[in-house]
Amino acid sequence: MLFGDYIPLPDGVRRALRYAPAAALTAIVVPDLLPWKAGLGPVFDYKLVAGVVAILVFLRTRSAVLVIVVGMVVWWGLRWLAG
Predict the structure, then answer these.
(1) pTM of the model
(2) Cα–Cα distance list, 39 to 26, 36, 42, 82 (Å)
(3) Per-residue pLDDT of the chain (83 residues; tens, 9 = 90+)
C-alpha cells in the first residue's frame, strides 16, 4: 500500500488480490458460525441458524443493515427460547 502504483504487479496477481477481502471475511466468520470441538467435529450452535437466516435475508433484500438486525434478532430469540 505504501508504494501503490510504483511496483507493477502481473495481471494474475492483481486478479487474485480481488478475492483477498472475501477470503479474509470468510476466514473470520466461518469458524464462529461452525465451532469445532476436538474429537467431536462440528458442533451445532444457534449462530449457524441465525447466519443462514441472515444470508437468506441478504439474498432477498441486499440490505446490510437488515441482515445485521435480522441475524441478531434470530440469534437472541433462539437463545431466549433455549432458556
Answers:
(1) 0.69
(2) 24, 9, 9, 25
(3) 566 667 788 889 889 989 999 999 999 988 888 888 777 777 778 899 999 999 999 999 999 999 999 999 999 999 999 87
| Closest CA relative to residue 67, chosen from 76, 49, 54 | 54
- d(C-alpha 32, C-alpha 19), whole Å: 21
Residue type, 4: G
Residue 7: helix, strand or coil by DSSP? coil
Is 46 buried (19+), middle (13-18) or exposed (0-12) by CB count in 10 A?
middle
Gap between the Cα atoms of 52 and 21, Å rounded? 21
Longest dimension (CA), the chain: 58
